[in-house]
Amino acid sequence: MSWLSIFSGGNKASGDAKSSAGPQKERPSAPPTIVIDHHDYVPEEFVLGSFRIRPYDGDLIAKQKFDFRLQFDLGGDPVDVSCIGMVVKLTEEAGLVARFQSPQPFYERKLIEYMKALKGL
Q1: Distance in angstroms (rounded) separating the CA atoms of residues 85 and 65
Q2: Which of 7, 15, 27, 109 is the most exposed place for a label (fewest CB within 10 A)?
Q3: Angstrom distances, CA of residue 17 to CA of 11, 12, 22, 25, 49
Q4: What distance in Å separates the CA atoms of residue 43 and residue 28, rounded to the nearest whole number?
């Protein structure tokens, strides 16, 4: 094989084998755990930037900013991220609805990778 064919993609068969033989991440079985004031919650809804916990029995109030930890397992590697959130809505019917700021870039990439795996992408 020539150097030109390596750099120009002339040997497509070996390139395809490399991409298909890559390690497949196993799909997470549950959403992440949200830890608020040392209490673990599994969110009913979770998307990048917001979540809903129902029922919620903590001490937060509407429009309050709060610190929480986001914990999930990414391919056997436990990830624990410190985040800052703000209560958007807190009622008996809705539960706790909160938005959160993106974590540091390293953890944001891990979270995006986890969300892709959770959705099967």
Answers
A1: 6
A2: 7
A3: 11, 9, 9, 17, 36
A4: 14
pTM score above 0.90: no
Q: How far apart are CA 110 and CA 73, in angstroms?
A: 10
Distance of alpha carbon 67 from alpha carbon 87, whole angstroms: 11
Q: How far apart are CA 52 and CA 90, in angstroms?
A: 10
Return the number of other C-beta atoms located less than 10 Å from residue 41's C-beta: 20
- The tens place of each residue's pLDDT in the chain, 121 residues long, gives 555 555 555 555 544 444 444 455 577 767 799 999 999 999 999 998 999 999 998 899 999 999 999 999 988 889 999 999 999 999 999 999 999 999 999 999 999 999 898 887 7
